[in-house]
TrEMBL record:
It comes from Streptomyces desertarenae. Keywords: Carbohydrate metabolism, Cell wall biogenesis/degradation, Glycosidase, Hydrolase, Polysaccharide degradation, Signal. Residues 376-672 form the Glycosyl hydrolase family 81 C-terminal domain. Transmembrane segments: none annotated. Residues 752-773 have a biased composition (Low complexity). It comes from the Bacteria. Its EC number is 3.2.1.39. This is glucan endo-1,3-beta-D-glucosidase. Residues 39-63, 747-773 are annotated as: Disordered. It is an enzyme of class 3 (hydrolase). Residues 1-20 form the signal peptide.
Amino acid sequence: MRFRRRPAALLAAVVATAAAATGLGVVGAGSAAAATIPVGQGSYSDTRPPGAAGPEDNTGAPVKPKVTANAAGKPVPTNDWWSSLAFKRYPGNPYSENLYGHPLTYRAVSGGLEVGYPTSHAIVGEGRQYEFPHKRDLTIGLAGLNSPDTKADSWSDWTVTPYWSDGTRTLRTTIGHGMPYVYAQGTGGAAQISTAGTPSVFADHGNVLGVTIGGRHYALFAPTGSDWTVSGTDIRANLGSKDYFSLAVLPSTDALATFRKYAFSFVTGSRVTWDYDQAAGRVKATYTLTTTAKEGSQTGTLQALYRHQWLHTSDALTGWTYASPRGTMKLREGASFTTSQKVAGVLPGLPRTSAVDKARLTGYLNEVVNAADPFQGATDTYWTGKQLGKLAQLVPIADQIGETGVRDRLLGLIKGRLQEWFTVGGASEFSYDRDWKTLIGYPASYGSDKELNDHHFHYSYYVMAAAIVAQYDRAWAADSAWGGMVKTLVRDAANPSRTDTMFPFLRGFDVYAGHSWAAGHAGFAAGNNQESSSESINLSAGLVLWGSATGDTSLRDLGVYLLTTEAEAIAQYWFDADQAVYPGDFGHDVVGMVWGSGGAYSTWWTANPEEIHGINVLPVTGGSLHLARNKDAIRRSIAEMERNNGGPAVEWRDIHWEFQALADPAKAKAVWDAQGGNYAPEAGETRAHTYHWIATLDALGAPDPSVTADSPTAAVFTKNGTRTYAAHNHSGSAVTVTFSDGGKLTVPARSTATGTGTADPGDPGDPPATGDTFHLRSGGTLSTTAAATPTSDTIASAGGANHDGTPHRPLVYEVRNVNGAHQSGGTTGFRLKVDAGTAVGLGQQARVSYDLTGDGTFDRVETYRYFATDPVVGWEEYDASRAGLKSASGSLGDLRGGTVRVEVWSAIGNAPSQLQVGSGSVLTIPFG
């Protein structure tokens, strides 16, 4: 079945677009004489083909980037969280749509910037979508400001500065992901804060004012010597000779002094750097804010980390948190932080095993290569890409079973179609738009031209296919041949350069959010969105393979960073792997789409559960192995799909079989065997690839991402306690790949090798944890050492519902790579310090889970009876032995590189409570 991605009529619950805006001037891409730009043996045009369209508003009028003179001519990062500032999609709104920075939300209007902090969610669209919608708490502006429009004045990796001017007054505000502050600079009028309701003042220190609006706490900061005055919903301060002021959303009123400390340390930029430590099998990323002191000498700041970040940082965090659609954000005091993650390997294809029937596989390969049209009539960028990807996945398979004739015919098909697209003058080509600094493929599809949607999706297939060609024909991949055009596509979709004047830095990838965005204009009330996160991963995996095949370590390492980062975001936000992100009343285990405001159990084209659950799996490639880190999430997804589908998948059955094989290969193989190959493959799949995938994993076992390697093109599989090591070597000489458990594998030149090796548990990049006592620490970790001073984490309210036995928005603490021998007869113990304050009727509950081998499956899960706290301020002790087990599943055994997890949540009650962390709350496990 062919599916559509963006039909004209969108799902009403998902789209929720804002009112429309004014059109702008004519695009200049077609105004000059056409020129063909040669790139190696290929080329692109600087003019669109006759009759083709470029970026336009929703009435069909062409649009240019809406930026100030300061930003004129600079590549605009479309497909970002704030893109509606620059891409005015709707006539009638020359400002912006809703912008989701997290924890704050924004919307540009004539009088300045609306600011909100949504702390509660809504379930909409017949239960299919959860959202934390923008709702104005206040507007930051200048007295009398009435700007006819808003423009983007400057931007950096995750911050942006909108600009307003009405001829008399000018205003700039700097906003960004993770920023609790809004920094304002203005002239021509007094600083003005207009509130949505009458504010309650909780602190007044002249130039520093603390106000509560709708239950949310804000601090307002004017220059020293100024004084805020409050009149109803109007708050003003004369700036005198100064031109700056700021505000911040506070996690609590007692945070005012800390926020005051950094109020005049204005953020001027944001930047990520990454470092792939190949020997350790880890990638580190450092996120830094640059600042300037408007008063005094303080240049530090405060920033809130998303879940996918604080799970992987060892940097100190405060005890303060914020709510967000991505779960709890944790506040750090400091201008930078660093994350460190294990790298998930990418393979060109799964390795050869004796379990695959060569005759059967050859028959399936011939079905494809002998088809009347192996491209199935594809003409546009997306569907051509799908077919290129389909054929590319068969090349390594044909090669490993000795079908070199089939392999070479496949390579010829791929090269031929790529070269058609990479050459101006035929039925298909790429054209460069000088105004928007983007390369658009024509024929286009799904708004890749008019809305600049999905370039990373479409082009991912071209890069992946080119990487497979480069594996077998490096001369074809040379810059002087066709590699230059491949790199030009990469520059459009995932440019690693900030100084390239032709393309923006990482167009689609939001480095702070940890994932890509699909819409070029972000013109929705729910913010930007991304549906097929797996197609975004396809680009990252393609970069790893292309860089490895061509010797371009810079692009290889870019792919490693992008894939590793987005893999964690996908686990947390698309699959809710830890069951700690989605609201308890959402009722779904996955979302098909992530929005700025939340997530939706839907797709752009259908409500079919098979496609909702499958769109974040396809295409299944050697870049999909990261999904196996969360095998329970895979099982939950398949179970929900089958419940909602009324049975197993029918239309996308092969995608779900392959997905299941990443967690339970034997089950997937049994379903395949029962089907006997008698089905219609998904449009980007083949029987050959699906059979090879399932049979290989059934033989080797599911991927074991707990073990890393000193190569980005290596992976480990585990079956019945036996590990199989696999690696591909793109180089011209043999290499020895070393794995984190001590296993070693010699891989001949330009080959894939496998072996069981001899493993010595231990990860040089993540030293094994030993001992039986762990302290719950801020940041979601379990540590064998206690902090010098205790802090507290907030346990979310049960919301008046009964969650006895089922985690609801739990606090999660985890330690990985734990080694220990199980002490027969020993039991789990914990002492958790909890405090309900004066709230009545609360009960906290804990669950302890053991993943004995670190393969993503919890072998033993223990849920304890909840502890009923008293309504008296002060710490109480929730003790495992006194509470007793409520339920338990599985059994314990020795820990070998295992994972131990503690979850704490509110089982009952209608108020939050506190858990002491750092020191005071302790877990003991029955291991020596």
